[in-house]
Amino acid sequence: MMKVKALWGFVGNKGRVYAGDEIEVSQQYGHSLIGKGLAAAVSDLAAPNENKKAEPAETQEIKATPNKKATPTENKKAEPKEKQ
Known about the structure:
Helix content is 12%, strand content 21%. It is of the alpha+beta class. The chain has a domain at 2-41. A 3-stranded antiparallel beta sheet has the order 4-1-5, covered by helices on one side. A two-stranded antiparallel sheet has the order 2-3. A hairpin with a 2-residue loop joins β2 (10-12) and β3. The longest helix is centred in the middle third of the chain and has 10 residues, at 27-36. It is flat.
């Protein structure tokens, strides 16, 4: 069995399912719904309450690079060809 979240409303083995509903279905039926784009798999893992704070040793030192002066480009217009 697997849990899926309906992305679209549809009528299926579980009756009428609305977008946003989470239902438990067989592996085969769940993968069929996912393949058709009607549902997405729901992870059984709970989201963490907060992120781990980085220690000073874990952060990367960002080195500043000196600003390079951009060379100005001249906008040259193509000269019209002489008519003969």
